[in-house]
Amino acid sequence: MDLLMDLVSRLLTLMPVTGTLDTHCQFGAAWRIDGRATVGREIAWHVLLSGTAILEDDDGPLVRMEAGDVVLFPAGRAHVLHDGSGKAASAPIFIQEAGFGVARNGSDSASGAAAELLCGRFLLPSAPRQLLREYLPERVLVRGRSLTSVLPVDDQLARVIQLMHEEVARRRPGCKAVINHLCGALFVLALRFASNDLDAPRSLLALTNQPHLRPAIDAMFDEPSKPWTLPDLAALCRQSRATFMRNFNEASGRSASDLLMEIRMAIAARCLAQTELTIGTIGMEVGYWSKAAFHRAFKRYAGVTPAQWRQTYADEHPASRRTMIRQEVASA
User: What does each of the 332 residues of the chain score in pLDDT, given as a tens digit?
Assistant: First the structure.
């Protein structure tokens, strides 16, 4: 668990995740939600507040969700949630309240088949590649009931969900802002509890079961400018090169060299966006003592040159650019 949280904390420092609530659903039978596929910066999420739901996607058999369950789709796949009755769903009516949508389908919510859900998106930062998204399973499903049966005291996720529920129910001033801030905690806690699944597929979560790889992972984050080789990283873990490569790939689905490259490029992209450091200096910060070598590596990774990335970010985030300039003037 500590290894996973260290990884998530380090990655979120490089690429902070925010979130937004899109719709508060209040349904009676029969109901259905068609979750669209997402690309780029968005990860869809759903929290089942009450009732039950059937989840369908391309990940295998149908899954029954209970109140308190959370599901997110890092791979962006399309999905369906429904009541499982087999009946045609009643078309919902959408209205705007307190800054988010409210969907009600007009069915009798007292029928015993009612369900209440929160639906939204986690928003990843602008980056050349979505490292967090690529290193997570295609679907993350967290069972809310495990919070009471397995972890009776450490129930932060349940409390966050309860706070979100209270905010949408009371519709007090600023509730949308409160919920959006809680989304960041929802994301991290969902990953924390999902990591309890020892059968997690090859991904960032699976690395939590490989503490013997921690020295190499720490080294990549702590000293990205060092010219690490696979034998160097393997030696830190007291493994042979072949054993280290096999263990890392089996856990994460990627090579250690891939992760090192992605950490370096994420750091470089952030420096290009948020500082006035020269491109050559940024290259040295991430292990490239030749400006030309850094230029080639960044373009191969991001599809654009470092200068183009910096300009594109500045064009898309003019307010951030002005803030950065003001901070530099103030510190001069």
Answer: 455 456 767 777 777 788 999 999 999 888 999 999 987 788 999 999 999 999 998 767 889 999 989 999 988 889 999 998 888 888 889 988 878 889 998 765 444 458 999 999 998 877 766 667 777 778 888 887 544 433 333 478 888 998 999 999 888 888 888 998 999 889 888 877 766 654 555 566 667 667 888 899 889 989 999 999 999 999 999 999 999 999 998 888 888 998 899 889 989 988 998 889 999 999 999 999 999 999 999 998 888 999 998 998 888 776 555 444 444 434 33
How many CB atoms within 10 Å of residue 95?
A: 9
The CATH superfamily label for domain 210-331 reads Homeodomain-like (1.10.10.60)
One CATH from 1.10.3470, 2.60.120, 2.60.40, 2.30.42 for 16-194: 2.60.120
Q: Are strands 93-97 and 100-104 parallel, antiparallel or unpaired?
A: antiparallel
Q: Which residue has the tokens 């400018």?
A: 225
HSE-up of 39 (CA within 13 Å, CB side)?
0
Domain ranges of the chain: 16-194, 210-331
Chain centroid, CA 320 distance in Å: 22
With residues binned 3-state (H G I as helix, E B as strand, rest as coil), the percentages for the chain, rounded to 5, are: 45, 20, 35
**88 bridge partner residues:** none
Q: Where are the beta strands (DSSP E) in 105-171?
A: 115-123, 140-142
Whole-model pTM: value is 0.78
Q: What H or E segment, with its residue span, contains residue 260?
A: helix 256-274
